[in-house]
Design a protein that fits this description.
By secondary structure, the chain is mainly beta. The protein has two helices and 15 strands. The strands form two sheets. Strands 1, 3, 4, 6, 11, 12, 13 and 15 form an eight-stranded antiparallel sheet that branches. The chain starts with a helix and ends in a 40-residue tail after the last strand.
Length: about 280
């Protein structure tokens, strides 16, 4: 009976899709896999974390006045095929300063350049979400980025200053999902809970692939260092059943008798893959 079960399982494997999730909650205090530009302007901090004990935070620094600074931090995106499944990004964010021309933020969901190139003058391509990247109305928007030009493709009804705010309790939860046909759906909770998010807009765009880097961008003046905090960044990939693109079938993550099905390891423990290496 066991042999028959295994034979059936291996016949079905080509039709089973594997859901994968990568999460950064920063509770291990480690950002060694992240790239910063300029160097040493971000840290994992226990000062007023957004969730848990630690969050990713822009550092407080003493800098010359009269200058606008732009600091970025990025991580490599996984090798997922957006043409074969949906991808969902999530994060929590707090900006302890009302947004302005010089003081604003963005999260690059996908960029062809890492932290050093996540600035308009470096002509990146990809997708980003943020406030006051193209204006001064404090509205949260989702952008397609072409050669450093930010073009809004989803405009929400959220005025960040008025509806999120700039206090220590002012946290927003953000989710962006990209479906296989290029449909982006943006959800936001101005109370900082993934459980109370509301749809704030949709758009179809297939200009750029899912590839490159995820990153955080912070523009600020010298009086407002250390005012941006991010936490619970996650990416989830849900491949479609190859026989029916309207159905998503997820792989079970538990052991079935003696056969252990592969699931992606945590980014914090890349040594504990459940599939032995063939190398």
């Amino acid at each position: 009976m066991k042999k028959s079960f295994y034979a059936l399982l291996f016949l079905l494997l080509p039709f089973i899709s594997i859901s994968q999730t990568i999460s950064y909650d920063f509770e291990d205090g480690n950002i060694e896999g992240w790239s910063q530009y300029p160097a040493d302007m971000w840290e994992v901090s226990d000062k007023n974390p957004l969730n848990g004990l630690l969050s990713l935070k822009h550092k407080v620094a003493s800098l010359p006045s009269g200058v606008t600074y732009v600091d970025r931090i990025s991580a490599q995106l996984p090798n997922w095929d957006a043409n074969e499944g949906s991808i969902t990004w999530r994060f929590l964010l707090r900006h302890n300063q009302n947004p302005s021309l010089s003081n604003h933020w963005a999260v690059f969901l996908a960029s062809n350049q890492d932290a050093e190139g996540m600035i308009a003058s470096a002509s990146p391509n990809g997708y980003a979400i943020g406030v006051n990247l193209t204006g001064l109305d404090d509205i949260l928007r989702f952008f397609r980025v072409n050669d450093g030009v930010f073009t809004p493709i989803i405009e929400t009804d959220i005025n960040w200053e008025e509806q999120v705010g700039a206090t220590l309790s002012s946290v927003a939860a953000v989710e962006v999902e990209r479906k296989i046909d290029g449909t982006f759906t943006l959800k936001v909770s101005t109370s900082g809970s993934f459980l109370t998010m509301e749809v704030k807009g949709t758009a179809v765009d297939v200009e750029h692939p899912f590839a490159g880097f995820l990153g955080v961008y912070y523009s600020y003046t010298s009086s407002y260092t250390g005012r941006l905090t991010v936490d619970d960044i996650s990416l989830r990939y849900k491949p479609f059943n190859p026989n029916d693109h309207d159905v998503i079938v997820e792989q079970p993550e538990e052991q079935i008798e003696d056969c252990l099905l592969y699931t992606s390891p945590s980014p914090r423990d890349r040594t504990r893959s459940r599939m032995p290496s063939s190398a």
